[in-house]
Amino acid sequence: MTDNKLSSLPDDFCKFKKLRILFLSNNHFTELPTILAKCPSLSMIGFRNNHIDTVAENALPLSTRWLILTDNAIEKLPDSMGDLHLLQKCMLSGNRLTSLPTTMHQCHNLELLRIAVNRLKALPAFLLDLPKLSWLAYSGNPFCAKHPNCDTPLDEVVWDALEIQELLGEGASGLIYKAIYEGNEVALKIFKGDITSDGLPEEEMDINISLGRHDRLVDVLSRVTGHPEGKDVLMLELIPPHFYNLGLPPTLETCSRDVYPQGFSLTLEKTLKILQGVADAAVHMHAHGIMHGDFYAHNIMIDDDANVILGDFGGASYFEPHEVETRNALERLEVRAFGCLVEEVLALSINDKPNATLRELLVTLKNDCLREENIKRPLFAQIFQQLTHYFLKR
Predict the structure, then answer these.
(1) Does domain 244-393 have CATH number 3.30.1300.10?
(2) How many helices and strands (H and E) does the chain possess?
(3) Assigned architecture for domain 155-236
(4) pTM, entire model
């Protein structure tokens, strides 16, 4: 029921006993309908871009698994959020939250959280202790500093000097086009300018500029000026056409976990090379004070030789590198996301006896990355060192 003029639901809406998924985005709701709490099977709820400023206590069903309240006017969440023990994915970017209820420390199943572009004066400390939190985006809050490298001067290219070719893809924050500049093929990212579930496109642009260059990342080449509609545009290195996405985004069923094409498989050697390449990119990223926030297989591109490129920094956040304890705890959140990736690619890898020892080592690494206590997980430098050692020994 997205894109209507609804501002309420009927009192007998709870008669939909089997309703599991409800989308009411782009409507006129000012409060979350409390009748939802009486819908016994409702697990995915979407109220993006309404005018919601009130979420009453116990307004949500205990069956809630995936909650989308992006782009509203919510100043406070109820303490009953802590009762949502099945909550796995929670999207709260673009509201007016100054804090999160501390009861949310009971949301032990929460894996993905978006709290970007709110009014948070500090990162809620309890988030770092949630046993399954792996994908966190928090940029654009008052406590967030700008990355010191986001003002790095870039070459500027005028729009009219480009020959725009086909659309290569579209993400939440922008459109990617192929273009020709001075006889060379490049990619253009044209930012939409609207808030996404992950945060603000300008924050993503700052992160892209701040990342620096690395073989496993898409390099930023120039800033493009003079777009006909005044849009922000970056010129990027063009990913060669023989690269393809390692995974596909989560479905309504899998919620927070990627899916893979039917029949897709990897040799264990390629699995190891992919993981080593991704860990290499992660070391570089975290050394620059950047957390990816969306560290998924669907944002990793590979070729048939298992070379890796990590992309899509729409959910990325900057953290102050001198705050060592917080920095390491944030990195270990992302290490858990890496552990999920290891688990998934191991499930895709062909089981052969000569590589049984390597498989056992990777299973051990996966288990270490998925430890429920944040402090017991390794950091990416250690992970990369381990994987390089396995790679040299094979």
Answers:
(1) no
(2) 5, 17
(3) 2-Layer Sandwich (3.30)
(4) 0.94
